[in-house]
Amino acid sequence: MGRDEAKAAIERASDALPDWKDTTGLHRSGILSKWSALIKENSEDIATIMTLESGKPLQESHGEVAYGTSFLDYYAAEAIRSNSAGGGTLIPTPFTVAGSTSPRGKIMAVNEAVGVCALITPWNFPIALITRKAGPALAAGCTTVLKPSELTPLTALALQNLATEAGVPEGVFELVTADADINREVGDEFCTNPIVKKISFTGSTPVGKLLMKLSSDTVKRMSLELGGNAPFIVFKDADIDLAVNAAMASKFRNAGQTCVCADRFIIHKSVEEEFVEKLTDKVKQITVGHGMKEGVAMGPLISSKAVQKLKEEVDEALAENAKCVVGGSPLTDLGPHFFEPTILTNVSPKSIIWCAENFGPVVAVTTFETEDEALALANDTTSGLASYFCTQDMARVLRFSASLQNGIVGVNEGIISSTVAPFGGVKESGLGREGSSVGINEYLETKYVFLNV
């Protein structure tokens, strides 16, 4: 599919908008609940498709199915709230009847659907990042056009088929697939077509910046969840076993291919040896292989290009005096897409693997001695999505979390994403928030109405 197909999908979404936004929140809620139920009923097939497309272990795919449906369930409930589409607030009027202190008129702030929304999703979470966008959009009364990653289109098509079965009308959840060489023209149509009122994108920071530029002529609403490069700080008073478990959960899920993965490990000098030793023991136990094989804990990277990029970054770090404690190389005996779980110490904060999101199973370690030094290392990046730190000092918890320049902070925990929590970054990691009760606001406009009655 290309620009013409994208334009046609946008027009179908526009045609469907008046009827869909005019339905009750209760009606939309019922459809979202049915969609969620159908995904759950077909979870085995969907998880299998996801694993075969993306490579992630089957158990992770099952976990994502559950996580993805949780957004549909959540926004099915949000659709009927008083602050959803058609709801709003009644504001006390400051105006008075002439010659009197009696109030004059009524002020209403009414929430309405934004309109046609373009949703662009990546390959690393091919279900959850669709439902996290489509759930609130449909709950708010918007119609949508989805462009999934060219690497995981089958998962998206399966979701669309089940949406239709659940009763989502034609035009409400359109889908456009495109090969890598066609992505640009589809994205250009999304950005320049005046029918599209909002774009929600999860992906790289450079592409997010391009979408912003292309959308500026039509002044679209934007939700952008962009690149990470999360710091993981371990203070000298931390519970090291807890810190190691948190690091394992954060770093190696989906082979390190998540935007909130810990990338930069900033460890207090006095506990570095213990932390690295215990982490190494855990890393050596990771079973790498095909995602469909029983017992596999980590699958492949998404492409051979990703493997080559990671290998170059590791080699560059080693050339700058980093030490490889474990791993460090592609696992060519398994195939062209596999890379060893890796730990590097003495990593220079100027090396590529430190400065750029590595999107792979590589732990890059450096040390610090003071809290100020740790904070400076953590914040020394243009990204600001997630961060993690481990300490048992409650005063430090409050002080340090307030000073970190990130939209999401995990304290003594490595898995922090949740349906009920607002997800998003600061600095060049994006705009807006997804998930939680604030997520639906991204798909609503507020109209001020004054009634002189």
Automatic annotation (TrEMBL):
It comes from Thalassiosira pseudonana. One of its GO terms (molecular function) is succinate-semialdehyde dehydrogenase (NAD+) activity. Gene3D superfamilies: Aldehyde Dehydrogenase, Chain A, domain 1, Aldehyde Dehydrogenase, Chain A, domain 2. PROSITE patterns: ALDEHYDE_DEHYDR_CYS (PS00070), ALDEHYDE_DEHYDR_GLU (PS00687). Residues 3-449 form the Aldehyde dehydrogenase domain. PANTHER family: SUCCINATE-SEMIALDEHYDE DEHYDROGENASE, MITOCHONDRIAL. SUPFAM superfamilies: ALDH-like (SSF53720). This is Succinate-semialdehyde dehydrogenase, mitochondrial. Its EC number is 1.2.1.24. GO terms for biological process: gamma-aminobutyric acid catabolic process. Signal peptide: none annotated. Keywords: Oxidoreductase. The active site is at residue 225. InterPro entries: Ald_DH/histidinol_DH, Ald_DH_C, Ald_DH_CS_CYS, Ald_DH_CS_GLU, Ald_DH_N, Aldehyde_DH_dom, Aldehyde_DH_Superfamily. Belongs to the aldehyde dehydrogenase family.
